[in-house]
Amino acid sequence: MAVSVLTENKEKFEEFKKVIEEYKGKEGPLMPILQKAQEIFGCLSLDVQNYIAEELNIPITDVYGVATFYAQFTLKPKGKYKIGVCLGTACYVKGSQKVLDKLQEILNIKVGDTTDDGKFTLEATRCLGACGLAPVMMINDHVYGRLKPEDVEGIIAKYRDE
Amino acid sequence: MELYRAHVLVCGGTGCTSSGSAGIIDKFNEELEKHNIKNEVKVVRTGCFGLCEVGPVVIVYPEGAFYSRIKVEDVPEIVEEHLVKGRIVKRLLYHDSVAEDQTIKSLDEVGFYKKQMRIAFRNCGVIDPENIEEYIAVDGYKALGKVLTEMTPEQVIETIKASGLRGRGGAGFPTGLKWEFTRKAPGDKKYVCCNADEGDPGAFMDRSILEGDPHSVIEAMAIAGYAVGADQGYIYVRAEYPIAVKRLTIAIAQAREYGLLGKDIFGTGFNFDIELRLGAGAFVCGEETALMASIEGRRGEPRPRPPFPAVKGVFSKPTLLNNVETYANIPPIILKGPEWFSSIGTERSKGTKVFALGGKINNTGLVEVPMGTTLREIVYDIGGGIPGGKKFKAAQTGGPSGGCIPAEHLDTPIDYESFIQVGSMMGSGGLIIMDEDTCMVDIARFFLDFTVSESCGKCPPCRIGTKRMLEILDRIVSGKGQEGDIEKLELLAKNIKASALCGLGQTAPNPVLSTIRYFRDEYEAHIREKRCPAGVCQALLRYVIVAELCKGCGLCARNCPVGAISGEPRKPYSIDPDKCIKCGVCMEKCRFNAIKKQ
């Protein structure tokens, strides 16, 4: 199984191999390796997990256990634009739930899902620490603050056209 | 070294960066170049100034002019008027920094800063966090030098103990004692860890310290390493904080380059290095045993204590674990002495505490105040009160582990014990202000929802118990509450507190208990009268048209998605409650404020 992926994504695996070599000797290498893997491959498919397990010489159950425990690891590919609406206390008190509802309506997906065209993934995130700008959302690395539900449409449109 | 006649400090914290401060820095450099004064004026990207509400913030020295909500378009005017012609642009100044006689107040005189005292935050907004020389210029690494060359590890521990510093992560355990336990634990390999997994919603002081003054944490960890006998440190930081991660990475590399981390520091034979570990989105990893499991590369599940980390921590070795803000207090304590530190604060809580002020408050941002300051001073003097003339209802402290403090306890002085007495806790320092429009049952449900999804699932009281509590709360806010629900919540809460494995579970019921304690009438209104007094819980709301205000324009009826509104032109319309889905569109559209929620 791992072989097909190796040949398909040869370049990515070459890059990933170096990452594993770098961390192999360190103590507790699994988390940083999984983080790098997700960066390179976009998600932690079973093939990638298998490969890590073999390289680190640990059972795949350990890899799978960690990959499914943490919210930021994903086993399925995500959309090109990851929208994270903050549902931290400050944002919640200032109405971020309404922003999230509006996004669900516009994108016609539920929280946690990806649009059919693979463009957007909608998530409700934990506190982003930008409470001074509440309510906020993040699209990839860009933060949008002091949002009103009616602002959302225009922001999404910008990304849609890209 | 080059001398500059003026400095332009631009906030580069997450808040201001989100509202575009990077573009402002570029524009300043561009304009300075244009006016050919680049060698006279220096632009510095600093850490957080604290007053996030009015960001992006720009401060120009030597005058100390405090410009707020600056846009890129404003930059040419500031450069031309202020930096070329020497005339401060009053129009762009923060409103409170201009005195009645039109003179410019110094920052210490501005209401927001007046009652603050900055120890942990001393360098945030003052230095460039990506330049180690600026940190060294403000006595950075001097404390480490003093410790390594003049003090024994025991003396360091005695100093910290005498200062009275307690853990700023929430529980308030005496820091010096923790250091002593770790030093005395048998073992030749020990670790020093920094808990930067700041997960409490609404708390962002640790992030701002890491973004604004990363070297202070690195220096303190090295001091701790010397004191407890460790040569390796880990900083476990949330992956949700990209700017903090970047600045820490830069700071660690610079410290290594300057020989302040690595082998034979200051030629004393002391070795210490730090590695960064990123979290991956698990709130429970803020719990110390879970955090250590995560560093080891395992699922972040807590384990019973004892053994405590001081005896058996990371990789089963004795480990010292402190939080970011705690570490940030260490260098000043070493340099100024424990007596100085313990002279600040209350009898049992010394020094200052940083709070992240948010929610329904005018000045949202970060404030650092001496222990013993009252909540009222924070809310009204520093925070500038509640927007829109609304009434203060409660302050939520301690995040999902804490509780709500109502108006009657506004004069509570801030310290660890007094917060517990009023049914909340200090926690890491989130301080969310709620006004009359906040439903306390909904807030309790919000926090429970948080703990339920963040429970690691290892122990049944937390995994199942909090879920049952959430179900009851869901029932109450959707209008299906039953007599006896409050008592059931209280019983479950008591049992979960007594039997959960870790801090997350043991404190999870607190938001429910404290809201029942102070706002029982709101719970009763939801259950008995099926009414939400704050007008928040959708299922209990009814939209009605006030006949006297309705002009009969029909705009609401045309916009209603389910055709629940009917009437004749120029006569008052009405809403059919059976058809209404409570979306609120009619209320948004009405130009005459004729639609009310009940």
Care to give the gist of this entry?
The complex is a heterodimer of chains A (162) and B (598). Chain A is an alpha+beta fold and 162 residues long.
Care to describe what's here?
- The complex is a heterodimer of chains A (162) and B (598).
- Chain A is of the alpha+beta class and 162 residues long.
- Chain A folds into two domains: 2-69, Arc Repressor Mutant, subunit A (Orthogonal Bundle); 81-161, Glutaredoxin (3-Layer(aba) Sandwich).
- Chain A is 51% helix and 11% strand.
- A four-stranded mixed β-sheet of chain A has the order 2-1-3-4, covered by helices on one side.
- In chain A, helix 4 (46-56) crosses helix 5 (60-69).
- The longest helix of chain A has 15 residues, at 10-24.
- Chain B is α/β, with parallel strands linked by helices and 598 residues long.
- Chain B has five domains: 6-111, Glutaredoxin; 132-341, Rossmann fold (3-Layer(aba) Sandwich), CATH 3.40.50; 352-435, Ubiquitin-like (UB roll); 440-528, de novo design (two linked rop proteins) (Up-down Bundle), CATH 1.20.1440; 542-597, Alpha-Beta Plaits (2-Layer Sandwich).
- In chain B, 38% of the residues lie in helices and 15% in strands.
- Chain B has 23 helices and 18 strands.
- In chain B, the strands form five sheets. Chain B has a five-stranded mixed β-sheet with strand order 7-8-6-5-9.
- The N and C termini of chain B lie far apart (67 Å).
- The model of chain B has no long low-confidence stretch (mean pLDDT 94).
- The interface between A and B is large, with 40 and 53 residues.
